[in-house]
Please model this.
Amino acid sequence: MQEVFFYVFAALTLGFGFLVVANPFSRDPVTRAMCLVLTILSLAGLFVLLEAYFLAAVQVLVSAGAVMVLFLFVIMLLDVGAEQRRRAGRAMTVMAVASVLALGGVFARALAGTRLPAVSAGGAGMAGDVEAMGEMLLTRYLVPLEATGLVLLVAMVGVVLLGRKDLK
Amino acid sequence: MTAGLEHYLGVSALLFGLGLVGVLLRGNLILMYLSLELMLNAASLALVAFDRFNGTRNGQILVFFIITVAAAEVAVGLALLVALYRKRQTAQVEDLTGMKL
Model:
């Protein structure tokens, strides 16, 4: 059962990811953004299979919800419209594919040369997951948590400053 | 046969490659940014998978921080894009040649 779900979610993730990068049906940026939402939702499904229930919920709420709303808002605000067909040059395409293949080679080599751990004992279940994450966040990872809060505050101030009309 | 760590890492690598192709081949800054998000999520998937198969939770904490910082980064990046669009009326990389020698 689990592996069926894995293959379903993996196929959905990769399929929608492909539609984000190269959509043969539509050139509308809004469609691409919606495909990215679906990719992120399928990834949340994979997170559930990996027993990361809390992260799956956060992924849906923050990445698929808040962040993508921001993306769609800016796309519509700027009125990007259908992407002008300024084709990437042949040399550029060849170099892009070559670099991706090189990166894939590095990944494949690293995977082939490593002994991967088999699956370990299961997690603590759905309720225990959130409990354990919260306890770790507020004890061992308290300083990073506070630092992240500071990062969010600085980002908010920066965005307000950048959004001013009379930006120097 | 159940899905092992290498399956998840394979999905993650493919997704990362897709995002990289998007960043390299798209000319529109917003579409490049969307592909960048794809790469970020691929990295998160690899981290969660490693975490699960090693039986710890440190990777999940790291992904939690990644998601938080990514949200801040998207807000700042999109604000920069809007400011740029106001000044130059364009979101195409080919038009942004101010730093070219």
Q: What stands out?
A: Chain B has a mean pLDDT of 88. Residues 5 and 53 of chain B are 7 Å apart (CA to CA). Chain B has one domain: 5-92.
